[in-house]
């Protein structure tokens, strides 16, 4: 009996604080939550040596010939997907018919959800940076390895999760298919709100697969607590266009669990430590060969004309 009160008090403190990790933007507003530099106090894995996101230093990246193009299933399917405000971010649930394999991945992975990371107003908000440059927004499509049934099962395997990451780049015109996602964010305004996005196709957002042969690959973690180090990361070179108007609109739709505007939802870059970042080689070789052939043809033509 003597221990009952302190123990339950401790439990309530633990469960109270663990629900309250937050991004820097939220911490600046109300510093009662744990900002990214303090996540590891409540989630020890966040202080690990294989954390994400990272800054990719392109002249340190190693070309790896086993990184062939990926194979996608279900990207052209018409889906009715659920959008849900989780309090710290908003996720769009995917069915298992969305699948990915190849590209050096050890088997088939099935879709679980995708979500976006954005900034404050229309300022940069990507998680991964390339040579120190932060992009306007980043999309993560989260998959779990077959035959796992949930993220909870998959996190016990160092390659249990495959995240496909896409950086956004500013464009003058609106991206025609992003508006339905932005409206869906608005229907998931508060924590716990759910809504349906009918007739959604991943291929309307994600570039065609022949544009996805070039990518970076490294092993890392989830970028939200618990920061489980179970993720094979694929970051594509090809970006997705988004207009300034759309970017501003994305950041105006949803709210954190505290009711404040959901803005600045990105974790800063983590140390690479002993890891190597690889790059696919596939389609970089082809243009080189065709350029050589063109040169050869024009040289031969030149020789013919000369004689
Ligand atoms: C700050 O956050 C705490 C815990 O979520 C909450 O109880 C408090 O009311 C907030 N303060 C302000 C000024 O929003
Ligand atoms: C290529 O990448 C794989 C991981 O996908 C790694 O196991 C292998 O060692 C890399 N090969 C080279 C030559 O770096
Ligand atoms: C999506 O929802 C529409 C109507 O709300 C329904 O007619 C259609 O069959 C659904 N599609 C799928 C793949 O569930
Ligand atoms: C969204 O969540 C808020 C707060 O929980 C609730 O009051 C509101 O009714 C919900 N709206 C919808 C459309 O579910
Ligand atoms: Zn993410």
TrEMBL record:
Keyword Iron-sulfur: no
Record's keyword terms, sorted: Glycoprotein, Lyase, Metal-binding, Signal, Zinc
Catalytic activity: hydrogencarbonate + H(+) = CO2 + H2O
E.C. number: 4.2.1.1
Organism the protein comes from: Esox lucius (Northern pike)
Protein name per UniProt: Carbonic anhydrase
Gene Ontology molecular functions: carbonate dehydratase activity; zinc ion binding
Range of residues in the leader sequence: 1-19
Function, in words: Reversible hydration of carbon dioxide.
Cellular component terms (Gene Ontology): plasma membrane
PROSITE patterns (UniProt xref): ALPHA_CA_1, ALPHA_CA_2
Keyword Metal-binding: yes
Protein family: Belongs to the alpha-carbonic anhydrase family.
Primary enzyme class: lyase
Cofactor names: Zn(2+)
Domain Alpha-carbonic anhydrase: 25-281
InterPro entries: CA_dom, CA_dom_sf, Carbonic_anhydrase_a-class, Carbonic_anhydrase_a-class_CS
